[in-house]
Write a structure and sequence with these properties.
Layout (H helix, E strand, L loop, with lengths): L1 H6 L5 H4 L3 H7 L5 H16 L5 H6 L2 H11 L13 H14 L3 H8 L10 H21 L13 H15 L6
């Protein structure tokens, strides 16, 4: 309901800002659907304007979204059949939405001193490596395709391309 309220215009953003911390906690729920819904709601809180971008970044939401994509896709299983693909797709789409704002972009690109939090480069490397592995395996043994490595989800690849394009564009000043 929070995501739906925030989807169409930013007039409710300030009222809904109190949901950011509880939604962040839901990003780490055991249930993929809960993670996906909270990731989508957080993305919707940035969809129509940057009013909450600084709060979202200060609460570590961009890094949390990166973390759930990488944490729940064990062994870089970014296939369509992964039990965690829904939250990965939604988190990646929300990262693209947030990345137009300076504060979120800086959070995504910042390397932590202790290297405990993932960076956007970690995400790019993980998905691109999984995709390259899948294609190399398919090229090496065409008749076994589908029995070994599984291709990376096409929607996830599309959202990765979207995120890269948004990061390459001029950021908005929030």
């Amino acid at each position: 309901a929070i995501g739906n309220a925030a989807f169409h215009n930013p007039s409710l953003y300030k009222l809904l800002s109190g949901a950011i911390i509880p939604l962040k906690k839901c990003l780490f729920d055991i249930d993929d659907k809960t993670r996906a819904n909270s990731a989508g709601a957080l993305g919707n809180l940035a969809r129509n304007g940057g009013d909450l971008a600084v709060i979202i970044s200060n609460e570590g939401i961009p890094k949390a979204l990166l973390k759930i994509i990488l944490k729940y896709n064990i062994n870089n299983d970014f296939s369509s059949s992964s039990p965690n693909i829904s939250s990965a797709r939604t988190a990646l789409f929300s990262l693209g939405t947030m990345s137009v704002y300076n504060s979120s972009r800086n959070s995504l690109l910042k390397k932590e001193k202790d290297n405990t939090l993932p960076t956007v480069d970690d995400l790019f490397n993980a998905i691109e490596s999984a995709n390259a592995d899948a294609h190399a395996h398919a090229d090496a043994d065409v008749e076994k395709k589908g029995k070994g490595k599984i291709d990376v989800d096409e929607t996830l690849l599309k959202y990765l391309t979207r995120l890269k394009a948004k990061l390459a564009a001029t950021p908005q000043p929030y």
